[in-house]
Design goal:
Residues 20-29 have a biased composition (Polar residues). This protein is α+β, with helices and mostly antiparallel strands. 30% of the residues lie in helices and 21% in strands. The protein has one domain (8-46, 57-256): Aminopeptidase, CATH 3.40.630.30.
Length: 257
């Protein structure tokens, strides 16, 4: 999952949108296979002690970039539960654990700029409460990935099938750059509180602050709630991309930042 422009199967896994999971993270269960120095009993870190460029507050929540490993892990677990939501596979718990571990390491790899494609793991966290001791695992209620990419030579939209050299300049500026949203999911405990809408708002503002004019997202054609959310945020279907996405059963949506 480390390559956003990989196979259609990879993209399907990455671009599940608004699949709100029933989050239940067990520290004893996750610690067995994380293979790192994660502290699952770590208390939520006060915002003033964290180093991050920007944040967006609304109600009892704060949207910002993930900073510490426990936040990356929780984002990965949310995505695992989202991916396996509603499935009756007898080994679903094992699948979720494996998915979360792989996604945790993938998130950290994607943070490194590769060929000009910078990626941020955005999270929504509950504001700290001086009367409540809350672990990081319980504080993160939503997540998405926001990457900055460049159109390849000849492309008019991401993924367009054009005859272009395999290796061409993607270190473009201005209209060649675009924002890309993926892996948007929200914890079951935080549904219907505006989490997804406000994370998207924050992501679009980040895109705009980088001087980028457009943001894109793929959404499954049967995912009506996601389509409605994106439409509400100003996204529109890129009709020119629809014919080549029939097999994947997805739409490409675009929003002018």
């Amino acid at each position: 999952m480390s390559n956003y422009s990989g196979s259609s199967e990879t993209r399907k896994k990455e671009e599940l949108s608004i699949q709100v999971p029933a989050t239940s993270i067990s520290s004893s269960e996750t610690q067995r296979f994380a293979g790192s120095d994660l502290r699952f009993d770590r208390l939520q870190v006060p915002e003033k002690e964290l180093m991050h460029d920007r944040k967006f507050e609304f109600g009892q929540f704060v949207a910002r970039e993930a900073v510490i490993d426990e936040e990356y892990w929780t984002a990965a677990w949310l995505r695992a539960e989202s991916h396996w939501e509603g499935r009756n596979d007898r080994y679903v718990d094992n699948h979720k654990r494996k998915f979360a571990e792989q996604e945790f390491h993938a998130i950290k790899r994607r943070r490194t700029s590769l060929h000009g494609q910078k990626c941020r793991c955005i999270i929504m966290v509950r504001k700290e409460d001086k009367h409540v001791k809350r672990t990081v695992l319980k504080g993160v209620v939503g997540t998405l990935d926001l990457s900055v990419r460049c159109l390849l030579h000849g492309e008019t939209f991401p993924g367009e099938r054009v005859k272009a050299p395999l290796f061409c300049s993607i270190h473009g500026t201005g209209p060649n750059r675009y924002g890309y949203v993926a892996n948007l999911c929200v914890a079951k405990s935080a549904r219907r509180q505006g989490i997804a809408t406000n994370m998207l708002h924050f992501a679009i503002e980040l895109v705009k602050s980088n001087g980028i004019e457009h943001a894109y997202v793929h959404v499954h054609r049967n995912n009506t709630p996601a389509q409605k959310l994106y439409e509400k945020m100003g996204f529109e279907i890129v009709e020119a991309a629809s014919s080549q996405l029939v097999e994947e059963q997805t739409y490409l949506l675009c929003c002018k930042a």
